[in-house]
Write a structure and sequence with these properties.
alpha+beta, Immunoglobulin-like, 3-stranded mixed sheet, binds copper (II) ion, transmembrane helix
Length: 134
């Protein structure tokens, strides 16, 4: 069976162009990831401060932090009477820690490996906060 020329050219074109599209897509995606690598923490007295607020959820709910440094997770409450008053970040030993409705809490955590993700949640698990170390 002979392949009509028009279809042959179309297939040849796709074979030539698809890898190019794949390469461009890869470059685009990897640059996007690099752009997302900014860290949203600050340093105070030698500690990285990973800060979020607990009230009707955790804000911000996704934080990028620097790996390999001593850190403090700082949680602020503000008239917080909902389930985010009970904080869980099991990987660093924070299990159902009851926060006052108005307060600032600090938990010292050891340096984390790059790629480590600490997942926090409220008592019901409905609200989550994710800290990614890069
Ligand atoms: Cu909850």
């Amino acid at each position: 069976m002979r392949v009509p020329k028009r279809i042959f050219y179309r297939i040849a074109f796709l074979i030539a162009v698809l890898p190019l599209i794949a390469i461009l897509a890869f470059v685009f995606i990897s640059q996007g990831e690099k752009a997302g690598y900014e860290v949203d923490t600050k340093f105070e007295n030698g500690y990285q401060i990973i800060e979020f607020t607990a009230k009707n959820g955790f804000f911000p709910s996704s934080i990028k932090a620097k790996a390999g440094v001593e850190s403090k997770i700082r949680v602020k409450t503000f008239n917080t009477y909902d389930c985010t008053r009970l904080l869980n970040i099991p990987k660093v030993g924070i299990n159902n820690v009851e926060l006052d409705p108005n307060g600032i809490y600090e938990f010292i955590i050891s340096p984390q490996k790059p790629g480590e993700v600490l997942k926090g949640s409220c008592s019901t698990g409905a609200n989550v906060v994710e800290i990614k170390f890069v």
